[in-house]
Amino acid sequence: MSSDRTYHHGDLRRAVLTAALDIIRTEGPTALSLRDLARRAGVSHAAPAHHFKDRTGLLTAIATEGYGLFADALADAPDLRERGVRYVRFAAAHPAHFQVMFQPDLYRTDDPDLLAAKERASVELRAGVTGLPSGGGDDARLTGVAAWSLAHGFATLLLSGNLSGAVGDRDPEEVFRRIAYLPFGPKPPGGE
Q1: Half-sphere exposure (Cβ direction) of 77: Cα atoms closer than 13 Å
Q2: Which of 4, 48, 72, 83 has the fewest CB atoms below 10 angstroms from its CB?
Q3: Which residues 6+ apart lie within 8 Å of 146 measured at CB?
């Protein structure tokens, strides 16, 4: 390895994040090693620590980025069902972020950037429940939990391959749209 490659990389932070996301997507977050990521990026083993400090810092950065992307994905959804569809779409498009975001034991839960990104995502999630006839107060919170459970459960089952038989070759977003009508309102257009 040349000394130029060791010290000059361009955007090492992004390169390490991209490599980490690839590993998480294929092998899971427990397979991450800063030393392995440095080797893949062609830099010294200490270089990733300059940006992330340690493995937990890297996973915190991934969760923070994930919550930001998640908030963007949910923004301006017209209703609760469409927020659920966007939830499923986000999980399918960003499976590594999704895995890390919902395992708080992997990252620093008190990180200010993470907290800000999580709050943005929470605001977008809660916006879908606003205006539903849930009676307000605790009922509104429970309605939010029910909707979140449906979208998160569907996305998790989809990513883990457990919906292959049920979904088949159908578009998972369309399948979710159909099942979202079951607990949250009238029958979907077409009366099914």
Answers
A1: 26
A2: 4
A3: 183
Tracing tokens 């997507």 back to the chain, one arrives at 25
Name the residue type at position 112: P
142 pLDDT band, cuts 50/70/90, is confident
Instruction: Please answer whether residues 74 and 87 qualify as being in contact, where contact means their C-beta atoms are separated by less than 8 angstroms.
Output: yes
Could you tell me if 90 and 69 are in contact, meaning their C-beta atoms sit under 8 angstroms apart? yes
Sequential DSSP letters for 91-135: HHH-HHHHHHHT-GGGS-TT-HHHHHHHHHHHHHHHHTTTTSSS-
What percentage of the chain exceeds 90 in pLDDT?
55
Kindly calculate the radius of gyration of the chain based on its CA atoms and give it in whole angstroms: 19
- Kindly tell me the burial class for residue 107, based on how many C-beta atoms sit within 10 Å of its own C-beta (0-12, 13-18, 19 or more): buried
Tokens 């883990």 belong to which residue? 160
Do 133 and 170 meet the contact criterion of CB atoms below 8 Å apart?
A: no
d(CA 159, CA 99) in angstroms, rounded, equals 9
If one counts every other C-beta atom within 10 angstroms of the C-beta of residue 47, the result is: 20
Give the three-state DSSP class for 2. coil
**DSSP-assigned letter for residue 29:** G
Say which residue, 183 or 116, is predicted with more confidence.
116
Question: Is there a contact between 17 and 62 (Cβ–Cβ < 8 Å)?
Answer: yes
